[in-house]
Structure prediction request, 253 residues.
Amino acid sequence: MPHALLLLSPSCDVSSALPDTLSSNVPRPNASTDYLVDTPGPRALLQRTFLGFPAFPQPDLEEEQRLMELVHSEYVSPCSPRVLKRWGHDVKQDMEGKHEEAFRRKNVVLEAARVMAAKVAAKEASLDMDAGKNSTTNSVYSPSRDGSKDARNGNGSDHVEAPGVKVAADRSQFKALFEGFPRTLIVVGDAERLVTEIKYLQDAMKKDGVDAQAEWVRDAVHDILLISQWWWDWGVVDEVWRVIGDWAARVKG
Prediction:
């Protein structure tokens, strides 16, 4: 672990970018003040390619299952509601439950479509086999891309794993989600889209015993330190750098 950790507008719930998750169906705050958008297509494309999955996938239930497991892992989305609940943290993502109810209803329709797609793919694979063709690329269940393990991690277990990525932390090795993390400073704008997941992050870190301090920058958007002086009040940015400098000096001392 490093001696200290500085986080600048950290994105800590990648699952919110994928349409098949509850997080993506709960509107993020500050839509009218931040430059980050919630356009489903581009956000899903960005995260799929970042995680090494096809941008425009063919129907493949195993592949999509691997993606869902990965985006809800501690390593990719430590503040995904599913991860937080797994480690005993409180999550109040959908206070009235209306978004979750709508998501469940939509999921019934999506699941029916997936089952139908799987049946079609299986039928096509069967026809290809009858014709003496190699049906590996059309099969609903196919080996992982590294060619060494199947999507069930090669030993028949249900622990789904992406190539080179361990999906979920071994709970037997850690007592808490953020156990052993160093003192941390989080810089976040109170007008950016990520405020909810960043609040989850600070609360979870503090509950797990981490000295986690947050600097909430008034009226600031995402990654305020990257904004040009021609677009923002440079006095605000200078103040943020001063706070970071003072914190770094205390950490060093």
